[in-house]
## 1
Amino acid sequence: MAAKSPRVAASSSSSKPLHSSPIARLQSIANHMASPSITSFPAEVVPQAPEDPLFGLMRAYKADSSPDKVDLGIGAYRDDNAKPWVLPVVKKADEILRSDPEANHEYLPIAGLASLTSKAAELLLGNSAPAIAEKRTASVQTISGTGAVHLGALFLAKFYKIQGANRTVYVSNPTWANHHQIFTNVGLPIATYPYFNKETKGLDFDGMKKALGSAPDGSIILLHACAHNPTGVDPTPEQWREIASLMKEKKHFPFFDTAYQGFASGDLDRDAGPIRFFVEQGFELVIAQSFAKNFGLYGERAGCFHYVAAPSSNAAEITTRVASQLAILQRSEISNPPIYGARIASIVLNDPALFAEWQENLRTMSGRIIDMRNKLRGKLEELGTPGEWNHITDQIGMFSFTGLSEAQVLKLRTDYHIYMTKNGRISMAGLNSRNVDYVATAVDKVVREIQ
């Protein structure tokens, strides 16, 4: 027994690392975790991305404990009590849907809910549009307007390759910030055309025409159909006609983004006017359509993407081929679009009584926005605030480019707890009868202090 002791002791000693205590094992793990990790994605390859400015603004607003704080950055409608407004017609459609014994949660077809996409096309082009009657339209339900822009960008990136065409996408300066990322993410280069005149706070029409005229033939031109985001400045009907004539001469490809039909003026047909005019002029074009704002279905992500072929003997065949490729792209991205918001919108669009009530709801929202524009301008002029403020009422839709400088915007945030984007864009929906005078008075003080 004694002779074996040394070997047992030696064996015990040599195997100690294999049978270390739990404390030693934990220390070893801790040491390993504390050491620099090996990754395929080092900082020089995957740098920390900056926070989205709008969501950063929202976070700062929520963290502000001041009872006077005002959110003018939010891109969603608020009622006069500063609360989200569920449209009464949406509540009715929701009740119809929940009471339907045949309702289920099965997949939609890849192209989406046909009763929505067909009516969505009519909403944009008109009930008796020749393009629809001649089967020159292909419509796909998307993840709201963002998804529609992305699907269109993806389609163009893959298929817009005709001889002599320019794959650069021209967007207005400024435009909705997400436009830049969506197109560059699919490999399409971006260029800008002048749009906002900082001196007049209106449209730089001459600059826009010059840029579109000098762009290579066949360029892709992104156009806001109404309620331009972020400026609230729209071309007049006469200017739209000039734009269409110039684009036809240059063989440019129109890409319309429409997120505010009916919400801008309260008139669905008026807000669709530019799109209908371009279609009537024989353009081949695409349209991204959102139901977030005009139905208040922000989180339901209901929207559509539409292709419209130019009139020709084989337009229907072209449209069928385009639709087939859109379905393949959609299948590989989201497979099938979401159903709830689509059903809500479809119920309203297909019921004459509910459709009429929806139009009234749209007039309520657009009317309140117009009232806030009038009140803000009126108070600023009453106070004698330096500068001209007619642009507040000349602009249209949810947003207004106030002309305030970044320094003035930051002063409004730090001293008065009024939140807006640093370029001076405000959401008119953030104003109400209880805060509009406060905002105007604060703007007056800041403008006088920082010239």
## 2
Amino acid sequence: MENFFTNDSGLPPFILTGFKGLELSQQWIFLLFGAFYSVSIVGNSLILFIVKEEESLHQPMYYFLAVLSVNDLGVSLSTLPTVMATFCFDAKEIAFEACMSQMFFIHFFSWTESGILLAMSFDRYIAICNPLRYSTILTDARVTHMNLAIVFRSFFMVFPLPFLLKRLPFCKDNTLSHAYCLHPDLIHLPCGDSTPNSIYGLCIVVSAFGLDSALILLSYIFILRSVLAIASREERLKTLNTCVSHICAVLIFYVPMVGVSMAHRFGKNAPPFLNTVMSFIYLFVPPMLNPVIYSIKTKEIRWRLIRIFSVSSSVRRELR
């Protein structure tokens, strides 16, 4: 199985790579990827099922969580084909068009996740700073419109990237640094001037990730100010506890994302495996950890999971 995607466009294919320097550990790395994919797909699917079935979770906060789970499934499934092909079948060649499509979806889901985290911070801000108007501000219709706006914003930001790359001549060794296609990796390969691509990529990173992270920080400044005005220490801790899951989700998304951007732009003299490890953390850790964090910190989800596994255990015992 030499070619994972057939190349009929006449454009040069790309060569995917695994972990450089760790070729002898490919089987263990494949098992690690398999564990991450399994936890991500099963965990996020369970979150979606529980939010759908549990009426007490039919609230804006959990609607946003459901959208986050759908997005995390998208992140996992967009990298799954080439990662499995690379590590399982040693199929390292990917057609130009297929690579462009994968790059589009990976970055689309990344931008969407940033927007969802911003919407969730707005939800926490309203719930804590203006609780009496929570249900009137975050109506079902408004939540739907916010989610659609996030999706459309991501689409229109990422849509030009494949076309900007396609106009350039690729005549070098088209070997990528990962087992999937990323824009910061691809813009180093063309023979022509990729400056417009770099400028556009930097602009949308600053305008999206930079603006989103700044607004999330601002919302938590207002939240903290409101919490500190509460007289009771127990009530302050209880209120802040409702934000812990979201804060963890923000940190595990933005910290690796900043690391990937810095490594690609300023890490030319860094060890080759650094970019690979940073992108691995950026793409695989948030989809895996988000359902785990929300399952642990959300009482309703935790109780429903316990019920699901208790019923499963009872059924297995009866079958024996």
